[in-house]
Amino acid sequence: MKKICVAFVLILLTVTASYAQIGVGARSIAMGGAFVAIANDVTAAYYNPAGAAKIGAISGKLSLGGSANNLDQMTAAIGNPSKFLQDNFNKNVSFNGNLDGIVGFASNKFGLAAVVQGALDMTKPAGSVSPSGNGTVTEDITLTLAHSFDVPGLSVPYFSLGSIDVGINAKYIIGQMYSEAPTGVTNFSETIANASGTAFDIGAAANLTSMVKAGIVFRNIVGSENWSGTTTTKKIDPLTGQVSIVTAGTPFSQDNARTPVTAIGAALDVPGTGLLTALEIDSAAGSSVTRLGVEYPLIPMLLKIRGGYVTGTGTAMWTSGLGITFPIFELNIAYGSNTNTNSNFAVIDLISMGI
Predict the structure, then answer these.
(1) 278-322 pLDDT, tens per residue?
(2) Closest C-alpha among 76, 119, 118, 121 to residue 94
(3) For the domain that residue 132 is a member of, what is the CATH number?
(4) DSSP per-residue codes, 124-150
(5) E strand map for 183-211
(6) The domain containing residue 269 runs over which residues?
(7) How many domains, the chain?
(8) Interhelix angle 2-14/71-79, nearest 10 degrees
């Protein structure tokens, strides 16, 4: 059992993955992920590649965040696995968590970033010492290219378009997975796998007026991952916690298609206030998510406050955050709560700077 817990801890400590249905980057997450019309930094690698067309100076970002449910149970299982099993043998036990992150740089309509996604989930049924769990992480190594096209004279009622920005994300996917499932009171199957694949996003954005921006992106228009690995049957000694192999590893290979996502949104700079508001609707696999976000310069050039709300299928989240501007970088912090799952999450941009 101790080896199993350690394996899951290693997954939890080493993965950085997008919080479900939110995104990456503390500024965008604090605004509920309503960023498809706003993304103009390294996060264009996730939200909308067209945003890279507005990047001038070199900018870099390193962002990390996460969430967890029943963290106390996970801590107890790691600290003393044998005692945890004895105390909870007749109980159902579960804990899960997510981490999110992005690291990269962008400059002059070009970007290169690693967008990392993953999750950890583990349960132990009552009357068993064999846990069931899954830890998965994927890293999208993303190349972003964007370009602006002048469209003089193009207009629609109430709007006039001077140019349209378009972009593409080309993603090379790397993945790792560890999974367990009980096959008896003391027996369980263990699966270890790695993945590789490719996926592409295309997006567009435009300033409809001096105050209104709009954007649209089609994520994973083409995308798949090939997972290959082995499944081994093992047995736990409930007295000592020692694990032994029952059946040697059986190889497998499986192709998984990435779920296409369409996101469309708009942002409004409220005249004379500095207030930025955003609305976005995402749709995927027959369900949709609506995002609302606001940003206000509480102290101009120094401190911004942010808030957001996300609602959709199985989702109801409130988000908030701060942005503190220093001479060569900006520190962003986000916090939120999912009222459907009673989980909290926090994100911090460790570095965000322009040269």
Answers:
(1) 999 999 988 999 999 999 999 998 999 999 999 987 788 899 999
(2) 121
(3) 2.40.160.60
(4) E-TT-S--EEEEEEEEEEEEEEEEEEE
(5) 187-207
(6) 2-354
(7) 1
(8) 130
29 φ, ψ (degrees, to nearest 5): -65, -40
Q: CB under 8 Å to 315, separation ≥6 — which residues?
A: 21, 289, 338, 340
Flag whether the pTM goes above 0.90: no
Q: Which tokens is 70 given?
A: 């029943």
Rounded alpha-carbon distances, angstroms, from residue 234 to 93, 127, 129, 159, 246: 20, 18, 12, 65, 5
Structure tokens at 75: 């801590």
Distance CA 316, CA 288 (A): 12
Burial class (CB in 10 A: 0-12, 13-18, 19+), 30: buried
Q: What backbone torsions phi and psi does residue 320 show, to the nearest 5 degrees?
A: -155, 165
Mean pLDDT across the stretch 90-104?
Answer: 82
Segment 173-215, tens digit of pLDDT = 999 998 887 777 778 888 999 999 999 999 999 998 889 999 9
Dist. CA 141–CA 37, nearest whole Å: 22
Phi first, then psi: give them for residue 222, nearest 5 degrees: -135, 125
Kindly report the number of other CB atoms within 10 A of residue 267's CB atom.
24
Identify the residue whose tokens are 């699966």: 191
213 beta partners: 207, 267
Whether residue 224 contacts residue 195, with contact meaning beta carbons closer than 8 Å, is answered with no
Query: Which amino acid, residue 80?
Result: N
How long, in residues, is the chain?
355
CB atoms within 10 A of CB 334: 28
